[in-house]
Structure formats: structure tokens, C-alpha cells
Amino acid sequence: MQFLTTVDAKHFHTEIPARPMGKYAHFITIRITESYPLFQTDGELNKARVRAGVNNSEAISRLAMFKRKQSTPERLTGRELLRNYQIGDWEKCDYNVDFSKTTPDCILYGFAIGDSGSEKSKVVVDTAYSITPFDDSHLNFTLNAPFENGTMSRNGEVTSRINSQDHILPQTFFPSIVTLKDPTEAGFLYVFNNILRTRHYGAQTTRTGRVRNELIGVIFADGEIVSNLRWTQHIYDLMKDAQPTQINSPDPLNEDDVLKAAKSAIEEAMKNEYIPFTASIGDKFDTLLAEVKEITGDESKLKELLQQANNESTAYANKHITKSGDKAKKGAKKATSTAAAES
Predict the structure, then answer these.
(1) Domains held by the chain: number
(2) What is the pTM of this model?
(3) CA–CA distance from 320 to each of 16, 17, 101, 114 (Å)?
(4) Full residue range of the structural domain in which residue 102 is found
(5) What pLDDT does 190 receive?
């Protein structure tokens, strides 16, 4: 079943291959905070000391959005859709507890269940970095937990339930490239839809963590492309060296300036790559995005897409996972029997 008319079918496989076949779809994304999210480890915001730009070589600290902070919310969005439309073995899947091993989530994003098998993720996400420095991108808040009457004291006793926490500021920009290896058309649209739909990232996702994903393009290639850090540094250079400069700390960046610089930076970065590629950026991408929205915004078309993605993942599982699992069980059983006979 074909869904897209704006993308050459040569970029997709007709079925999910068992071995790497050298087809890559790169989703060029700018993640924009719209509240006060927390990307943290051990109670502190994640950050890295790196060079500001490719040409601007001063060292700065940048906020870091680790890969699992990006991929986990997106795969959970896909799982929610599968449950909503009751597609595939949705009842069995329980994230980090039990996996069906047959759904698009399991096959595309991977799983690991101890001795019961594993599947390597075909969705590759690397750490994303804020364009602006750490000092201009976060704020410390004091948090408290009042009593029922709304105060911090009761019967003459003052509660100690008070704490402080660093939060990332709204309108902080994280350039991020999400890569899907060896996509089928349905798998490509499944991942595409997850990125477009996901709205919350980081800790405390029910109360804060609002993030909007602005896709500015898709690049098809036969290999991986520029890293998130290098792309971010290119963007910083373009904005810092603009006349007048577009980085005016501590003021937030202008979104239009960021998106324009991001497009220019990725196009310039691709000129230095040594691989053949097809870039869909600008007006060409707008046409693709409109077609994707038409598919994902129509319930009947969306269900067809999810069903097709599930059919492909189930066929892959039956062909490459179930058989290998059976062989492993037989091998273990045979080894046990041999050991028992020898003893």
C-alpha cells in the first residue's frame, strides 16, 4: 500500500530487512521548549562544556538533551496510538516490563528482554544541545508543598517541604536529527507521526515539559550525516555573526531567525558530506509535510497507516525474531540435556 506521492519509492524498502541495507531517512528537527522542562540526571540539569561554534571557538556550557529523553516520549506516543485503535498485540505491550516483540514500536525502536530476546533500534537519536549557553537557558525555582489551607504552617509548625530546582527556560532551542535506518514507507510515516505528535519531554511530563517539534526537512542518504553538536555550532556561527547579531544574551532567540539559520546550516553542512543524498528542505519539504498531515489528520488513513506498519513489523518478527528465539531455546534445551546425560 502506497501512501506518499511526493517521495520517490526508491528511498523505501518494501519490507523490513534483517540486515543493514544502507538506506537512511534523517528527520531534521528543532525542538523548542514552551514551558519549563527538566532534562536531568541525579537531580541536576544535563549540560556539556563545548565550543560555541565551528568558527567561534570560545568554550561555553550548553544544556544537553540525552537521546532517551527524546526517543522514549516519542515511542510512547506511538504505543498510545496502537492501543487507542487496538492494532497489533497492543494488550501485551507494557513499556520496560513486557514487549510483544511484534509491534512497530518493538521492531523500529527496539527492545531487550533478558534471555527472551532483543532487537536493535532502527531509530537513532543522539544527544541534542541548546544553541544558547547554559547560563542563559535555565532558571532556579523554589518549590514548596503547602498544607490544605494553602500555607506552609499548621498548628504552629512550619513544614520543611521546600526545595529548589533548576528548570530550562521557554524558547530554548535544541537542534536534533532523528535517523531511521532502512525505512519502509509505513515505518517512515510511523516515526514521522510520532515526532509531530509528541508534546512533552523530560521529567514530570504531566505538569511541565512542553516541547514543540518543528521539522524543517528530511534527508534521504546511504549513510549517517552531520552530528547534532556540529549542526548546532554551525547555527550558532550564523546567528552570532549576523549583522546585527541575532544572539543577544540573556534575551531569547527569535524563532524565525533560528529556523532560517538552521536550514542554511544543514544545507551548508551537507555540502561537506561524502555521501549521495536527497534533501527535502524548504518548499519541497512543505509539500511533503502537507501530505503527511493529510494522512495523519484523517482517522481512517491513520488507521490504515498503523495497520500497514504493524503488518510489516509482525511479518519481520515472525521471520527473523520468532525463529531465532526458537533456535536459541532448542540450543539451550539441547545443552541442558547433554550436560544432564554427561553427569
Answers:
(1) 1
(2) 0.87
(3) 10, 9, 11, 18
(4) 9-144+160-313
(5) 98
